[in-house]
């Protein structure tokens, strides 16, 4: 009877009955369940649609938080002036202190309120700067091709695997689940193929291949992560947590996506003797692709070549100059034109909220307080002021730190990704308790390449004062007031001389003599 029920035609629903090819839902079918999506995990198509979205978030959703901020400031003003300061000045029965104390509090509160409102209005009304206003539509640039034979399964030179490091296993360490710290040679896009190293006229006979798409895929991934950067990612602890979540999944039992080492004797002799080999797998491995080349700065969603340091914002659906993050509290992105005003705002907002919270706590905790009961609205303002005080002060200190390094939140997040990968590498080389060994290796890597956040920062200008003035201006008054502007046009930036003109990080031995 069950078999007859299964063979009965389906109830008419306006759709043709499914044929033999549509029976993947049958439990007895071998392909049953293959088309099911994992619960709680976005499909690749859904992520791609979200990444390639060209429609900005509705305007009302972007600006609704501005009304919330204005409402909170208005509530704090009413409570502090109307229910605290005025009763103290008039010496009402509900007064929490003397007339002199009420006047002092009012004289401090009003300037802080005015500065908070001034800086907030300035940062809300100042656009961050959009790349579409300075760039024209253009087809994707064609990446340069590389000539040379390939090396792969047929023992030919493969330019797509230049950056695959070749190492040997230490069998003693293998038994402990760690890779040997003994390094060997590797091959890189920067090193010449054998055909160019003494093969003479044979190089003219070699086929021409485009460069590896691996770096392009990594760049797309970084761009996707950059478009979703939040303001809390400026805090190192938050950035570190997100960076760990974006580490590559384990590959062949090794964390961090590390490829298993291969026998070194499979390399051609010319590659083993090249003087421009990249770093081994178990060491610091900066990005080897030219991040400033046009093919790596092309935005497929906007259809033009982005200026330096510009990134695509997923919420605004456009490329923003010197993109830092999208801030919902100001209803837009923080970028080249308004980052200075954003720092001004969080500075004064931190002073305002902390003063309100601390002063209300003090006057309500005084032993000679005439009131026996607590005002519920004052309790609400104390709680909100404490929370927003911690939040804005944290943003101010982290952005001050980043500006002194001449980095944005996106760039800090990229550095944090590299830090987490290095930690994964150290976990493969040394046990967790060998802190001194880890520090020695990190010091050795710094001696070879330079520090990650300073010498390894492509936008570092050489000193914290120069980095600070590049964003906050060269006049001290501009550092505290929402006036003036940042240096530069937001389109081009000076490059750290430790990098090539295309954005490749060079070893210390290749730096200019005065910088080594």
Measured by DSSP, the beta-strand proportion falls in: under 5%
| Approximate shape | globular
Largest sheet: spatial strand order:
1-2
SS elements, strand count: 8
Briefly note the structural class of the backbone. mainly alpha
CA-based gyration radius: 30 Å
- The CA-CA distance between the termini, in Å, is 85 Å
From N to C, what is the helix and strand string? HHHHEHEHHHEEEEEEHHHHH
The number of helical segments is 13
Helical residue percent? 25-40%
* Uncertain spans: 1-27, 29-41, 145-218, 248-275
Biggest β-sheet description: 2 strands, antiparallel
Multimeric state of these chains?
single chain
Rounded mean pLDDT score: 75
Descriptive overview:
This protein has 516 residues and is mostly helical. It is built from 13 helices and eight strands. It has helices spanning 2-7, 44-51, 59-90, 99-125, 171-174, 214-226, 236-245, 269-272, 339-365, 376-405, 409-429, 435-449, 464-472; strands at 146-147, 208-209, 298-299, 304-305, 311-313, 318-320, 325-327, 332-334. The strands form four sheets. A two-stranded antiparallel sheet has the order 1-2. It has a two-stranded antiparallel ribbon with strand order 3-4. Strands 5-6 form a two-stranded antiparallel sheet. Strand 3 (298-299) and strand 4 form a beta hairpin. The protein is globular.
């Amino acid at each position: 009877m069950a078999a007859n029920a299964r063979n009965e035609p389906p109830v008419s629903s306006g759709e043709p009955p499914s044929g033999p090819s549509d029976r993947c839902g049958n439990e007895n079918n071998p392909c049953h369940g293959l088309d099911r999506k994992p619960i709680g995990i976005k499909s690749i198509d859904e992520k791609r649609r979200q990444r390639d979205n060209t429609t900005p978030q509705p305007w009302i959703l972007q600006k609704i938080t501005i009304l919330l901020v204005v409402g909170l400031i208005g509530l704090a003003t009413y409570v502090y002036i109307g229910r605290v300061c005025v009763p103290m000045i008039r010496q009402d029965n509900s007064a929490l202190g003397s007339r002199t104390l009420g006047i002092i509090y009012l004289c401090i509160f009003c300037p802080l309120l005015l500065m908070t409102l001034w800086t907030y209005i300035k940062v809300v009304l100042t656009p961050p700067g959009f790349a579409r206003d300075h760039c024209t539509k253009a087809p994707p640039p064609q990446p340069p091709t590389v000539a040379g034979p390939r090396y792969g399964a047929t023992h030919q030179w493969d330019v797509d695997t230049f950056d695959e490091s070749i190492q040997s296993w230490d069998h003693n360490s293998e038994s402990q689940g760690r890779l040997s710290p003994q390094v060997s040679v590797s091959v890189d896009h920067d090193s010449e193929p054998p055909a160019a190293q003494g093969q003479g006229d044979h190089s003219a006979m070699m086929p021409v291949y485009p460069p590896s798409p691996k770096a392009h895929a990594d760049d797309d991934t970084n761009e996707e992560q950059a478009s979703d950067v939040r303001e809390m990612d400026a805090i190192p602890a938050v950035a570190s947590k997100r960076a760990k979540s974006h580490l590559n999944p384990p590959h062949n039992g090794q964390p961090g996506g590390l490829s298993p080492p291969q026998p070194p004797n499979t390399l051609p002799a010319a590659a083993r003797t090249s003087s421009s080999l990249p770093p081994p797998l178990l060491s610091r491995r900066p990005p080897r692709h030219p991040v400033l080349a046009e093919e790596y700065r092309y935005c497929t969603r906007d259809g033009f070549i982005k200026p330096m340091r510009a990134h695509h914002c997923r919420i605004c659906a456009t490329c923003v100059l010197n993109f830092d993050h999208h801030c919902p509290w100001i209803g837009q992105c923080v970028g080249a034109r308004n980052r200075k005003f954003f720092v001004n705002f969080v500075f004064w907002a931190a002073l305002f909220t902390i003063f309100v919270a601390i002063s209300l706590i003090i006057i309500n905790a005084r032993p000679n307080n005439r009131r026996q009961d607590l005002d519920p609205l004052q309790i609400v303002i104390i709680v909100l002021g404490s929370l927003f005080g911690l939040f804005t002060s944290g943003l101010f200190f982290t952005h001050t730190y980043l500006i002194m390094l001449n980095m944005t939140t996106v760039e800090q997040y990229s550095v944090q990704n590299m830090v987490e990968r290095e930690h994964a590498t150290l976990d493969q080389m040394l046990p967790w308790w060998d802190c001194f060994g880890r520090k020695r290796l990190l010091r050795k890597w710094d001696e070879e390449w330079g520090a990650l956040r300073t010498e390894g920062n492509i936008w570092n200008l050489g000193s914290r004062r120069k980095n600070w003035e590049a964003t906050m201006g060269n006049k001290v008054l501009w550092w505290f007031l929402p006036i003036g502007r940042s240096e530069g046009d937001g389109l081009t930036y000076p490059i750290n001389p430790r990098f090539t003109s295309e954005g490749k990080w060079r070893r210390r031995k290749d730096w200019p003599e005065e910088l080594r």
